[in-house]
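Example record

One chain of 663 residues, shown exactly as stored in the release files.
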Amino acid sequence: MKKLFMLLLILALASVTVACTPAETAEKPDDTTESTSSITTTIPATTTDKTANDPLKTSENPPKTTDDPMETTAITTVTTPTVTEKDDTDPELGGSESDVTDGAYGFSDRDFRTDSNTLQATIALKGTTAEVNGTGVTVSGSTVTISKEGSYRLSGSLTDGRIVVSADKSAKIQLILDSVSIHSSDGPAIFIEACDKVFLTLAKNSVNTVSDGATYQFTHPETTPDAAIFSREDMTLNAATGGKLTVTGQYKHGIVSKDDLVITGGILDVTSEKVALNAKDAVKIGGGTLTLNAGTDGIRADNTEDTEKGYIYIHKGTITVQCQNDSLQAETAIRIDGGTVDIQSGAGAPNSNRQYSGTESIKGIKAGGIVEILGGTVTVNAEDDGIHSNNEVMIQDGIVTIASGDDGIHADTLLTIAGGSVTVQKSYEGLEAMTIEIKGGITDVTASDDGINASSGSSNGNDFWGGGGGMQADPDCSATISGGTLVLNASGDGLDSNGTLTVSGGVVLVAGPTNSGNGAIDYGSSATVTGGTVIAIGASGMATGFTSGTIGSFMTTVSGGSAGKTLAIVDETGRVIASFDAPKSYASVVVASPLMTVGNTYSIVVGGSVSNTDQYGFTDNGSVTGGTTVKSVTLTSLITNSGGMGGGMGGGMGGGGGRPPRG
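Predicted structure tokens for this chain:
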């Protein structure tokens, strides 16, 4: 009976036919412009090349129809989800899909591998055709189609043709470019139609060129190819030593991936009519030397449907961008934690002090959600904002240098500097956000208007009272300095908050305005000092001091405050408790120091030689030789203010605090 039962079961199973077809993901919208829809940002978390958790792509959003630069809109939330990693080892290509760095901001082992265990075929390009030695390749005229998983080595020249990858959706394919020249006059020169992922590997010391024509005839039923190298799937570009690739996108873009675009090595030069490097989901750079010249954006990630996508990550490499619009532009997030990034947007910062007033976005680094700089060397020269986020900017480490025609760094909500070196060499307003927190590092800002402006952009537009003035106090705005060194040289207000200003640590050196329409310190409701050392100099007409605190502070007017001379605050024992090399003349001085005691008298000495100073002429434990005592101030209470507008009014004329932020 048992044998009969098993026989019947086998016969029943044999009669069942199951047809399995790999799920086809809907194509992402055609590139070219910028979203104007409001999105909710989720910062990318742990993902790898192609994981089992790769979010479903959708085609619900209509294709984009123009090539205008993106103006991202307000971001409402930023969260960090957890996504499970997948270890997808492929014995043919070698390596593992597991992450080697930090979550979504990571790379697989295979992203860096340039060798091949077994060649599926070699392809010799012969002008208008090709010769193939191996399997998995068909040649039809000047079109070479690769349809099977594996590695393929290409050499020679294709004067007017195309390399097409059209394989199973699970296939991983490596194209080894070994001194190739591929040109297509009517469409993409390399077109990745279908596979799981393609690896473009530049052979050792090879020189490769890929280009398209200025007009396209090539069409596809599910997408609109518009780049010299165009991929509907994930794509990695890597290289053996000395491998070089030059891409010329004469139609629109240089390199486009509708999934992830990963670059881990090689010498890559891209010149494009529009975007140089464009990915739907992410652009991740883990090495290489990239030189990008773009007619619109330099590097762009533009997924608007998935809040874990649409980001740019730079981990290593040398990236140089010259473009007419935004140099780095991401729908959600931009993270830089290594490498060297040198970018110029538009004509760069103007020589005059004028504020950028154009309608196009010509920013250096721009994200809809968050910009994080955690390391590396970043140099920005931008006609518009240097760094711009519609939500948050966080700088924790690295060397950041900015020249800007508008804001040096702008965040709609929160701007935090916790470490590293940040130098804004030129700007209209230096640092602008609703909430500004300086926690560490060295921040040196030069601005033709406010040095720091904590503003929500919700002013009624009455610029007479500038950023504060008590009459327009904004409870949502705050500027907080708790550590580091902050140096401001501003022609408008130096340190300005439309709400509260708090100093609890660090060193703050402010060279404020020489005109009496602004003040070195300006605030909307209160200015509190509980720690740190502050020297703020400027004009006296709208000068304000701190309103409360737990350490000694005074504000006073002086005569003889000369540019180019050291200002020293000296206690009764002759110790310099604070000093500053004044870059401009001044008529008011605000000082705060934990070394000041109620009842003691402090001398303001100008033009002396101070010992033990740093690059800004600061010390809190030095001595002064020579100079002129221009005033002595007795601390009658912890907060002792006289002259100017005292500690109660706040706010100065001008200051530009009410200008709403731009996208």
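Notes: Residues 1-101, 458-471, 647-662 have pLDDT under 50 and may be disordered.
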